[in-house]
Amino acid sequence: QVQLVESGGGSVQAGGSLRLSCAASGRTFNSYTMGWFRQAPGKQRELVAAITSSGSTNYADSVKGRFTISRDYTKSTVYLQMNSLKPEDTAVYYCAAGRGDSYYVMDYWGKGTLVTVSS
C-alpha cells in the first residue's frame, strides 16, 4: 500500500508560481510512475504531468514550458513546479502513483490540494 500526501496548493495571481509536493510512503517509491492530475469544477480529471521510475516525463500540452515535474528518490517525494500560472490552471491537483510505466494508469491517489489562480 502506498499513501500519498500533497502539499503546496494555495491562491496566486496570474503569472505567479507555486510548487506542489507529494510525499509517498512505502519502500517501493522508486519503482513507481508518479503523476499529477487535476480536476476543475465541472470538468473531467486530466493528466498534468507524469514521470516514470527512470525519469521519462510526459506533459499535457496546456502546461508544456510552464510546469516541471521532478522526483527526489531519497525523500520519496515528487514535485510539480508551476510557473506562469493562468486562471485556467485553477483546479484540485492530485498526486498519483502507478506500478507500471503508463503515464495514465494509476493505482494510488492522494486526497488533492486546491490551486486557485486569479486574474
Question: What does this protein look like?
Answer:
The protein has 119 residues and is an all-beta fold. Strand 7 and strand 8 form a beta hairpin.
Using brief descriptors, characterize the structure shown.
119 residues; mainly beta; 4-stranded antiparallel beta sheet; 11 strands; 0% helix
Let me know the average pLDDT. 95
- Residue fraction in strands: over 45%
Q: How many angstroms does the end-to-end distance come to?
A: 40 Å
Structural class: mainly beta
How many β-strands, per DSSP?
A: 11
H/E topology pattern:
EEEEEEEEEEE
Count of runs of 4 or more consecutive helical residues: 0
Query: Helicity level, as a percent range?
Result: under 10%
Give me the secondary-structure topology.
Layout: E1 4-7, E2 10-13, E3 18-24, E4 33-39, E5 46-51, E6 57-59, E7 67-72, E8 77-82, E9 91-98, E10 108-109, E11 113-118
Parallel strand pairs: 2-11
Antiparallel strand pairs: 1-3, 3-8, 4-5, 4-9, 5-6, 7-8, 9-10, 9-11
Q: Summed up, what is this model?
A:
It contains no helices and eleven strands. It has 119 residues and is mainly beta.
